[in-house]
Amino acid sequence: MISWRKHYRQTLIAIGLLLSTSASIYGQDGDPKNGEKLFKANCTACHALDKQVVGPPLKGVVERVKTEGGVDTAWLHKWIKNNKELRASGDKYANEIFEKFNKTEMQLFPNLSDKDIDDILAFTTNPPAPEPAADPKKDATTTDATAAAPANSTTTSVVIISLLAIAALLVWILIKLRQLVKLGQSDDLAGLNETRVKSFSEIYAKYHYVGKGLIAILALLATYGIWNWIMWIGVYKGYKPEQPIYFSHKIHAGEQKIDCQLCHSSAKYGKVSEIPSMNVCMNCHRTISEYNAQHYMEPGKDKAFYDGEIQKIYAATGWDPAKQQYTGKSQPVEWTRIHNMPDFVYFNHSQHVVAGEQAIINSFNKKNPTNKIDVVCKACHGKIDTMNVVQMANDFTMGWCIECHRTTEVDMNNGYNKEYFKNLHDKLKKQYPKDGGKITVDAIGGLECGKCHY
Prior knowledge:
Blueprint: H1 2-25, H2 32-42, H3 61-69, H4 73-88, H5 92-100, H6 114-125, H7 136-184, H8 188-195, H9 200-206, H10 208-231, H11 249-255, H12 260-263, H13 266-269, H14 278-285, H15 303-317, E1 319-320, E2 325-326, H16 349-355, H17 357-367, H18 377-381, H19 398-407, H20 415-420, H21 422-431, H22 449-452
Antiparallel strand pairs: 1-2
């Protein structure tokens, strides 16, 4: 009896140890929900659960390293905290992984505790099911159906009223035709024919003053029309062409808050704000291979559309997302230029973005108190962080630029302007005492022809 109890106790202990070891091996002793947060904060730059990004997919990584390398979670703890040290120790499996993934250095995470790593491993072993996302198409359909009912009713009413108006007009025409027929059958028609003017020359001779006046008015209107047409040649406000790769500034600059100068870096340091190279796009899209912002999709577009545009970036740069390496076969992207100054116009972005930044923002906000801006770029290009398709927001005519130079006050509080324009500042205070000697851009040469024209 004692022997049986002893054997039973040993069996229970063995089962407990087995379960404990199994739980440790499979990473299920952690908190998957907390692991998901830690995974998103630390791992998603290089890893995904179900596909290779920079590193391998991490779903089921605990079981995979056990099968491939015969190692357990203790090895994973060492690898995650300091894989470089683990490789230097001569660990065979660690060096195999390093060679397999093109000797790409993995970031060290000494800041993660053992509990944090267990939580991450629990998440990779049993990731929580994603919450069902709202279907934008369904919502749009419901909204459209709700809005369609009153719209259809209004349309029907307009059609009925239009048909009644046409019917009334036809009745009126028939009545007038009947009156004319009766008139033609009477003796009064002969008297009218005798007094009727029989040629255009007789009309002109009788009303030549009126005719000359009308001709003069028509000539003036025609001249004005031709002049107005000529003056607006090359002005394309509202122009928004389709691009070979769809790029939404609303998603990147608006939703994701990416700074304009991260992509258009030369706007701050050079004359031209260049179109960023595709390598700039790849800084992010090397790891962002699909569109997961289900909360925002432009009407008429779905996830498949956005994913397809990301694939165009890969095709242009020659990037193979499966192998995580460049093939060397790139394709140029023929972007359609939107803003293009004539060759005889000189415009320097850095002069406005750096030297004139605060002055331009202050001037714009003063003139537009209900539509203020926070970035100098928006003064000329409009609120580009709200545009899915970029369009020309202003006229960009000579008059438009001159008006800005006449109304934008130079910031005289910074050390350079205060010292450089000291004598001019004192002179203008005496010349314009009512304005307190305010200096606008035109006062420091902003209207000189040579400033903008070669």
